[in-house]
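Deliverable D2.4 — example input (structure tokens):
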């Protein structure tokens, strides 16, 4: 299952004369427990996740002179060991 995040339009100033477009971002992630297949690696887990899967271009907010872009696709992971 891929979670999604929806953000509706937002007004850019106090007089509500301009608004940013709404956007939807999709995220995905997987994890693997090494202890399930190799008993002596019990407690070792790997995780990889990706945010903004489609690399969507979106504006998070705007002021009178400039708009700020949202973060593009990001991939991150970690390796943990619990004893």
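Example output (designed residues):
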């Amino acid at each position: 299952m891929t979670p999604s995040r929806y953000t509706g339009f937002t007004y850019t100033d106090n007089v509500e004369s301009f608004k940013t477009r709404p956007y939807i971002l999709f995220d995905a992630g997987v994890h693997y427990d090494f202890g399930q297949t190799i008993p002596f690696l019990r407690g070792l887990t790997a995780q990889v996740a990706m945010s903004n899967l489609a690399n969507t271009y979106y504006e998070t907010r705007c002021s009178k002179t400039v708009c700020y872009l949202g973060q593009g696709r990001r991939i991150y992971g970690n390796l943990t060991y619990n004893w």
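Residues 4-81 form one domain.
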